[in-house]
Amino acid sequence: MRENSLPVGAMDTRASGWWAMIFTIFTEASLFTYLLFAYYYLAAQPHMHGTFPEGGPPKLGMASLNTVILLMSSAAVAWAQFSIEHNKKWRLVAGLGIGALLGVIFLGIQMMEWAGQPFGLSSTTYSSLYYVITGFHMAHVVVGVVMLLALTLWSGRGYFNSRRFAHIHIGALYWHFVDAVWIAVYFTFYITPLLGLKA
Amino acid sequence: MAAFSTRAFAAPLQYLTGASARAEPVVWLTWGVLLISVGVIVIIAGLLLGALLRRRAAAEPRALMPDKGGYSWLWIGVGLSTLALLFTVVWTVVVLAKIQAPATHPRVIIEITGRQWWWQVRYLSTDPRQQFDTANEIHIPVGQPIRLKLVGGDVIHSFWVPQLAGKMDAIPGQINETWIEASNPGDWTGQCTEYCGVQHAKMLLRVVAETPSGFAAWRAHQLAKPQVAAGHAVFESHCGNCHAVRGTAADGSFGPDLSHLMQRHTLASASLPNDPVTLAHWIADPQSLKPGTRMPQVALTGGERGSLIAYLESLN
Amino acid sequence: MTTAYERRPVAAADTPALRKKLDTLWETSPGFYGWLATVDHKQIGIRYIITAFLFLIAGGVEALIFRLQLSWSNLHLLTPEQYDQLFTMHGMTMIFLYAGPVLSGFSNYLWPLLLGARDMALPRLNALSYWIYLFAGIVLYSGFAFGFGPDAGWFNYVPLAARAYNDGPNIDLYALGMILLGISTTVGAINFVVTFLRMRAPGMSIDRVPILIWGTLTASAANIFAIPAVSLAFFLLWLDRNVGTHFFDVGAGGSALLWQHLFWMFGHPWVYAIVLPAMGMVSDGLPVFCRRPLVGYTVVAVATVATMVLGFGVWVHHMFATGLPGVSLSFFSAASIIIALPSAVGVFAWLATIWTGRPQFTTPFLFFASFIILFTIGGVSGYMTGSVPVDWQLTDTYFVVAHLHYVLIGINVFPVVGAAYFWFPKMTGRLMDERLGRWNFWTMFAGFNIGFFPMHISGLLGMPRRIYTYGDGMGWNWVNLVTTAGSFLFAIGVLIFFWNVFVGLKRGKPAGDNPWDAPTLEWATSSPPPPYNFAVLPTVASRHPLWEDRLQAVGERSVTAKGLVLDKGREALGTTPLDAAPNIILKMPGDTLVPLCLALAMTVLTAGLALMNIIMAALGVILIAAAILAWLWPQAVLGETAEAPHA
């Protein structure tokens, strides 16, 4: 940049939208904190044996695979971010597209897991927590996938380059956040029962 | 036997005086923080008036005062406030420790279930034949702690007899324990203090403290089955599904136990006096006295009603 | 139109030609379209204030009606169910639809002017927050309008609010309306925080911002973390009631206390959020009429933040009677008593400012000064309830009702009315009438104290909250009669205030730029300000730019007559978070209907859920997605897309 010049418009982390996303993430992170607080609080209430988690500690297979898938999608999106900073448009498009695709696969596997559960939504307190918390996370993934698809479209149409890519970073920030939330949800539902938090 | 009615103050639910070993430290603390508060208000009001009314040299409206001074206000004010606050914290913790548990082990244990809109009372005992139910009026012996187990029967209610102890909620899903103790014989009023629906306003209760022998006599009387008098058939068929009278076929538990109804000073969760006219009115049209109450209007002929009331009046 | 990547901004003097150019760029479109599509923070701020005052009137009327019912024992003016809906609506209206939004309104209007900026950081988000607030208010009143308003109290405890004890749409509308309202408050909070970090005038480091900025900033940061708790609580309740989940359902392993924890983890920070900005208004307004800057600016700013931070650690004091373990009670009791300390800092700072200043007894000053004693009374009654053994007597009695009204009316309403008198000239170019102002003040002050001080007494005499009537022998008759009389007198005072607003609009004296000779930047521009606020951007060298030459003979000076000219479109200056050094030229959006459309889409979803109509709900979701995509679609004019650079 020339001396004494100021950037104009939405430039990387000086864009107002980037800051808005940071605080949106704070509030959404708070939401998940309160959801997990509900889990831990209710876990500490008395329950009949075998009802928390219902049917015993949940199986790790699908959820662990999903964790890997989501981590990979974050890596793809991070690669996309790196690419646009170096003006590599098609790598940007590829990274975003792969990220979105992996997100869709995550959703598919999660729906399969839901379908295979022996309990329904209104079965017990545990089942309520399971579907509502993973459901909230899934809703965030859906929003993220739609957003990644929009970014893929806009990238394909040449809207961004190595000077202007605020939208990419803002969207990526959200996607990485959704990934981090999954780690917390996975830990709560799948790991803590193995550590002894169960009835 | 009948309890005394000490109406020492015009406001039966006031708590600036107390009537028990448990209440006393709290009454002192209440007065303490009240006086500190009043003191603070008077001092700040005085300082404010002083600041507003002090004479100052006249000046042209646009003139400014220098941006200096006033810091001593902050140091002194915050310093004094800190002392008062810390003093209160210490006193609070001391009182809390003192009243958390009674000095001796309670021998009388009462389970109280909050219901919309009355209090179900069960005197517990290790011997099941010594357990009995009553409602809305609790008798206790003086000079000893009484343990109360509070059960949430439907929604959250809160048990409060101000002269004897602070509030404790009756919450569904958990049993909260508290204790009360009366120093002298007397008669105290309490009220539910957690909004619990349309008749929250009329969910009162009474505590009657008796001498130990008076209490023993009352208790023995409660355990005794009342005489079966004429009119009990009307009661059993029209009222027995909801109300219980010990020793008869009437064993409902939706509404208060009526076994020794005439021992009580009040009706409808201590919101009405227990006299024949009120009792008749209550049975004829409960909604007019306590709109929203769960007690239905039961269809009775004139003769049935007369019989029923005579029966109830015999439940001594 | 393409946008250059970078530019060397030019500094110049304020000229009429520049003003004309900026007018054309920043003016809201005329007519109905402009009214719906504006993103001007001043118009949005005024809308917020007017809407909030309308809700104040609604909540006030509800209270006056049930105060009549309570004026004597055993009255039958209302049925218990009517009473229960009225007191619930009163609490909900005042706390959620008046107290927060009115402060958002004043902050919205004032922040860019106080900060020397052209607009808030996110103007479209600003418009969105207002529209959602309006629609949420309508949703929240929709049940009551047809006789099924929420009736389980404004804090809506379960199981009373669960389906088993409260069938019908009453609670569902409350829950869904609150979730919608929470979105409004949250996006508004995000806007304030980002604006604080990015939009301050060059030189306005964080130790030079007005205390109102600290107050609203603190409240906004808190809201960002706290609101999800209550939104979640209401959503889980809605699920329990409509879908059969078991979060609060004790029979199935749920917990009634989970509601209370989630609600109060939000609720306690919220009550600070609805007073800290008002305290900030007093901290900024009072010194103007004491003719000197606030004593102890830094401690007051720190105390503001400290109050809010501590405010996250005391929520359990609303639950002292629920059977918690002793250790927990002691901790929260100590915290609840100690939290009085940062508040005490404010009281002494204000007293010191008056004492070392030269008071001018204007109407706004009367409201700001009287607030100090009302704050003190509300504060000490809170201190009393902080002590657990005392709280076990005071809680759920009229003592708490006295406390909460002293803090809410004393620390929110009185400063707000004072702020209205203070900033009305800036907003309208006219002054309100001083004589009517005195009548307004004394009527409100007398009425408020006659109405609410006796509640301390009825509380100490044991009168429980939320009872629709009471018996003859309880000893509460005279106290209640006096309270009812006082509350009507207070209402008359409020009416005089609104009358004075109308009088001021119609024939108030012209105010000029700075009728109060106040020091901050909003008084450096015209009354009312032009749509672009400042033709050239001011540079700031102290907390009181317009008083500098009279307070210090030498020193750095703020400059308002000359500054950066940003006129290549709608432009604003972005600066660094701590020191406010310029670091970006921001392209600001103009009029757009998208925020209104998004708010409507969210309302469609809310209505779909309320009616359990999946088609309507799905339609709402699709419209929301479409609106958000339209909003975020990269636009060249906002500098969001890659363009070939040009000068």
Query: How large, in whole angstroms, is the Cα Rg of chain B?
Result: 27 Å
Q: Could you say which structural class the secondary elements and strand pairing of chain B correspond to?
A: alpha+beta
The number of helical segments of chain B is 7
Overall body shape of chain B:
elongated
In total, how many beta strands of chain B? 12
Structural description of this entry:
The complex is a heterotrimer of chains A (199), B (316) and C (647). In chain A, 69% of the residues lie in helices and 1% in strands. Chain A is mainly α. Chain A has a single domain (28-41, 54-195), classed as Four Helix Bundle (Hemerythrin (Met), subunit A), CATH 1.20.120.80. Chain A is elongated and about 70 Å long. The model of chain A has no long low-confidence stretch (mean pLDDT 95). Chain B is an alpha+beta fold. In chain B, 33% of the residues lie in helices and 19% in strands. In chain B, the strands form 4 sheets. Chain B has a 5-stranded mixed sheet, with no helix packed on it. Chain B has a 3-stranded mixed sheet with strand order 4-10-9. In chain B, strands 6-7 form a two-stranded antiparallel ribbon. Chain B starts with 22 loop residues before the first helix and ends with a helix. Chain C is built from 20 helices and 6 strands. Chain C has a 3-stranded antiparallel sheet with strand order 2-4-3, with no helix packed on it. Chain C folds into 2 domains: 45-507, Cytochrome c oxidase-like, subunit I domain (Cytochrome C Oxidase, Chain A), CATH 1.20.210; 594-638. With 647 residues, chain C is mainly α. In chain C, helix 4 (80-115) runs parallel beside helix 6 and helix 4 (80-115) packs parallel to helix 15. At the B-C interface, helix 1 and helix 2 of B face helix 4, helix 11, helix 12, helix 13 and helix 14 of C.
